[in-house]
Amino acid sequence: MINPKAMKRQLHFFTILIFFVTPVLSQVTAGQIDDFENGTVLSWEEDGGAASSPNPPTNISTGGPNGANDNYLQNVSSGGFGAGSKMVMHNSSQWSGDFTNQGVIAVKFHAKALTNNLNLRVAFNGPGGQICTTNAVLVTAGNPWEEFTISISPSDFSLLSGATSITNTLQNVSTMRVLSSTSPSWRGDAIVATLEIDNIEALTTLSTEEFPKNTIGIFPNPTSSYINLKNIDQLDIQSIAITNVLGKQIVNTKVFQSGIDVSNLNQGLYFLHITLSGGKYTKRFIKQ
After folding, report:
1. Which domain CATH number covers 182?
2. Max Cα distance, the chain (Å)
3. Same domain as 97, residue 55
4. Is the C or the N end of the chain the one with fewer CB within 10 Å?
5. Alpha-carbon distance 192 to 187, whole Å?
6. What distance in Å separates the CA atoms of residue 19 and residue 251, rounded to the nearest whole number?
7. Quick one: CA dihedral 61, 67, 72, 78, positive or negative?
8. Can you tell me the distance from the alpha carbon of 51 to that of 47, in angstroms, rounded to the nearest whole number?
9. Per residue in 249-271, pLDDT tens?
10. Same domain assignment for residues 226 and 142
11. Peptide bond just before 4 cis, omega within 30 deg
């Protein structure tokens, strides 16, 4: 006969065991920021992890963009061949998941480079294969902390070898990489360099010029018929365009004095691109 108390103890044991061995997965969310103030590397690592790299990412406790006591992440590449030779690090934890559904269209960060210039790119792996941003941002060696933004809309990527779909990968990212490469790549270039990086942020809006908070806005959002613009400072709006999550421009949307007619769009996520005399501003909206 089965002892009820013994069975209860066994069930309790297995419940505890499952709790400890089941991985806790964290996925990307709009507006998240890796600021490294908790003293860890926040799951950023090189291929093979710290055990195989002689110079893995390290949390530095002071000297970030905000000066004393501002933590940041440092990654060193040694050049040549083998582990640690390339400037590349990846994250499969908080930077995995559905970037499209979260409306994340850019990655912003502070960075500076030591020894040699770095051509930084963002790369993703997912069901559609490996993809990498077509254009790099140049981090010039010896400059102080600078802020950079890398756009990650579908049109910003190149398919790497064997990849089939940028869209499928962005909807289910398994790994995100930050790497230095002279051309779109998954592995990066071997280089002697040091990258210092901080405040890695998932942006849902993108502008080529910083405008005062709430200067440009849209409402209602979500909407089923019209979008109205909030233009507090009466900035000079030169043109307006709408793209879908694939980066395709919607050409049959008309702009009226009462707002922007989106009644003909299918339900889903879209991006409103506003061109001003001083730059561009992008807002996401949902068509119900």
Report:
1. 2.60.120.260
2. 83
3. yes
4. N
5. 15
6. 51
7. negative
8. 10
9. 786 566 655 578 888 888 888 88
10. no
11. no
Amino acid at position 63, single letter: G
Long-range contacts formed by 51-59: CB under 8 A, 24+ apart: 52/83, 53/83, 53/84, 54/78, 54/83, 54/84, 55/84, 56/84, 57/89
Strands (E), 48-156: 58-60, 72-78, 88-91, 106-114, 118-125, 131-133, 137-139, 146-151
Sequence-ordered list of residues with C-beta below 8 angstroms from that of 74, at least 6 positions apart, any chain: 57, 58, 59, 60, 194, 195, 196, 197
Helix extents (H) in the chain: 4-21, 99-102, 166-170
Structural domain total, the chain: 2
**Residues 113, 136: contact at Cβ < 8 Å?**
no
Residue by residue, DSSP assigns 203-223 as: ES-EESSPPPTTSEEEESSSB
The 10s digit of each residue's pLDDT in 88-146 is 999 999 999 999 999 999 999 999 999 999 999 999 999 999 999 999 999 999 999 99
Q: Which residues pair with 76 in a beta bridge?
A: 194
Q: Does 250 lie in the same domain as 190?
A: no
